[in-house]
Amino acid sequence: MSKDKIRVGFIGLNPDSHWAATAHLPALQSLQDDFEIVAVANSTLESAQKTAKALNLPHAFASYKELVTSDQVDLVVVTVKVPYHFEMISAALNSGKHVYSEWPLGNGLEEAQKLAKLAKEKNVAVAIGTQMRYAPEVTYLKNLIEDGYVGQVLSTSLIGSGGNWSNQTAEEYYYLFDKANGASMLEIPVAHTLVGVAEVLGDIGEISSKLYSNFNEVKIAETNEMKPKTAEDQILLQGKLESGAAFSVHYRGGVSKATNFLWEINGTEGDLQITGDTGHGQMANFSIKGAKSEDDSLQELEVPKEALEGWPEFPGARNVGHIYQLLAEDIKTGSRKAPNFEDGVKWHQLIAEIDPSAK
What we know:
Blueprint: E1 6-11, H1 18-29, E2 35-41, H2 45-55, E3 59-61, H3 64-68, E4 75-78, H4 85-94, E5 98-102, H5 109-122, E6 126-129, H6 136-146, E7 153-161, E8 168-169, H7 186-201, E9 204-212, E10 217-220, E11 226-228, E12 234-241, E13 246-252, E14 261-267, E15 270-276, E16 286-292, E17 299-301, H8 315-333, H9 341-354
Domain Gfo/Idh/MocA-like oxidoreductase N-terminal: 6-129
GO molecular function, one term: nucleotide binding
Pfam families: Gal80p_C-like, GFO_IDH_MocA
């Protein structure tokens, strides 16, 4: 395969705000030997031109359809709201482009299945943004477990805050509070975190769930208008991992003045405790403590410094960067190492098991 840089076109990129700018841009800037951002398509041509000028990009397209059919773009990155994923990703795949899609892949299981089938038919490299699994802290935890730090894992429990999904929000985030949009607390922070848990401890074998709401309306901060809220703000999961270990997860809407991410792993020979500054494990700053059976108390455990060298400071960008690194190899060599759309379907299937309405 050619060693030329992979030419990237973004659908949905603002140069100074939102996820594409804070995570994807720094990630790609740390991989400049492999990638070059060349194009953008936003909701309007004016917006695309503004981004292109700010980032010195050669191409600003009036629509996503123009971007995905351009012979100047090799990889299409989709970072727009979930309800638009299916049509945009389908268009990119049908144009023979490689695709990186933000998670969730589709608005429900059926869309995800169709996209995975199409990607396989087109035989292109694709990636889904379930990046918590590549956090250096998660890799470190996985190694600790594999090396027997806690012995046999007996149980794991986790509590997290969604940030959103309580009783107040900004107007631009109101779409998250409508379950029909496929971007609820279950699909975003819960699913992201379950991917990370499974990376460390193995797949989930059995699961049962309860989904509740404390609030059926949400206040829009800018106007004080009350609008309907259909996305749950309390999600409780329990079950058994394939290893046989018990697990439980509780996510609550809003933020907590106590802790917003607390994950414990208990074993026959020790314990691990992971805390984070946000319930969104895909972009959290994690602290890890551990204790062996002979220890009197938990001790700080440090991730090897070399695991952080050369990567952006923001954990979200660092973790996304690892997916891009794998995707570059897939595009250049024909390997399939990045988390792909079939892997995304697996997590959509779990969501549908937790909440059948997510199908």
